[in-house]
């Protein structure tokens, strides 16, 4: 049970408590560039999730055989292998989305979130914990991308995943699907997450004070 609890804690850490975007503020380049629609955010999030999970598994399995002097180079090669798989798969199966995402699929290789997890976690922990960490961080990044894309698409086009949500009288906020819209939406979401964290800390402090009094 202890191992399962630790794995669950690692998953929840990446999904919420240490969300790579809303808490750690990582991977903002693809986040801001491709989230003008929910489907683009979903595609990029799933691609990053696959690369992070696959790379974490390989790095965790072979960490004992990778010389410390070339570990970063080896991590990049492993990540690039999975990125190539994603790139060719998207090009063959979903050419329209592949074209929309453009150079940001190959640039997953340089995503500081993925390389950072290889160095800080997968290369130092067991396979079980590395998989849990990859699932949590990948799901957290996917959640952020889809959330941002959904808000921008709804306000900027009046649609969600291409499905019209409002009537003909709806006036789209065109700025939301332009680069400034990405910064505005991200700023509001970061403000909301910081407010939630501050509120949680106040509640925890209040409970701790009440327990001390009792």
Helix/strand/pairing class, anyone?
Answer: mainly alpha
Helix content: over 70%
User: How large is the count of helical segments?
Assistant: 8
The string of secondary-structure elements, in order, is HHHHHHHEEH
Distance between the termini: 32 Å
Low-confidence blocks of residues: none
Strand order of the largest sheet: 1-2
Please outline the major beta sheet.
Answer: 2 strands, antiparallel
Per DSSP E runs of 2 or more residues, the count of β-strands stands at 2
Main attributes of the structure:
mainly alpha, 8 helices
What's this, in brief?
It is built from eight helices and two strands. It is mostly helical and 214 residues long.
Characterization of this structure:
With 214 residues, this protein is mostly helical. The protein has one domain (2-213). The chain is 72% helix and 2% strand. The protein has 8 helices and 2 strands. The chain has helices at 2-17, 28-34, 38-62, 71-93, 95-101, 112-122, 127-157, 179-213, and strands at 159-160, 163-164. A two-stranded antiparallel ribbon has the order 1-2. Helix 3 packs parallel to helix 6 (112-122) and helix 4 packs across helix 6. The protein is flat.
